[in-house]
Amino acid sequence: MDTVKVVISNDQKAVKIPTGIRMLIRRCCHAVLELEHFEGSAEVSVRFVDNEQIRELNKQYRNIDKETDVLSFPLGENGVYDINHDTGAKLLGDIVISVPKAVEQAEMYNHPLQREIGFLTVHSMLHLLGYDHENGGLEAVHMREKEETVLTQIGWKRNNSYYMGDE
């Protein structure tokens, strides 16, 4: 892997973004690409929203009228990506995180908000690279193992909870 450009925007005012979150997100994106032996440069967009914004996106793009924690919008398929013609980087797609939902889940699972946002970022990065857990089974377990491998590598070892929730 060459370089990873991660563009992060905060489009919500419900929760103050803690110091270090942007660096954590960049580390998560880089760690996933490294784990997957990604070739070349990559670009990813990460957007923070509130529950109402993510609900609207979920309704618009997935026809599900409820809030969720994270949405992934891949720009590639089967390892083929759009290219930024100025930089030559592969455009992996967009990650949208509901920060209030992340706060709620961090409290529910009794771990720091940083771990929750790291998990959501890693989870979505794997979706951008083609992984899916929607059908459950081995594919979901394989994806979960990769998530935990990356989080452990960057210093967020799993506690005793093991949640396989819906997206």
Structural description of this entry:
There is one protein chain. The protein is an alpha/beta fold and 167 residues long. The protein is globular and about 35 Å long. The chain has five helices and five strands; from the N terminus they run βαβαβββααα. Strands 1, 2, 3, 4 and 5 form a five-stranded mixed β-sheet that branches. β4 (82-83) and β5 form a beta hairpin.
Helix-strand blueprint:
Layout: E1 4-10, H1 21-35, E2 42-49, H2 51-62, E3 70-74, E4 82-83, E5 90-98, H3 99-108, H4 113-128, H5 137-153
Parallel strand pairs: 1-2, 2-5
Antiparallel strand pairs: 3-5, 4-5
Helix pairs in contact: 1-4, 1-5, 3-4, 4-5
Order of secondary-structure elements = EHEHEEEHHH
- Share of residues in helices: 40-55%
Per DSSP, the total helix count is 5
The major beta sheet can be summarized as: 5 strands, mixed
Mean pLDDT over the residues: 91
Radius of gyration: 15 Å
Return residue spans where pLDDT drops below 50 for at least 5 consecutive residues: 160-167
- Helix-strand makeup class: alpha/beta
Q: What is the 3D form?
A: globular
- Distance from N terminus to C terminus (CA atoms, Å) equals 29 Å
Strand content: 15-25%
How many runs of DSSP E, i.e. beta strands? 5
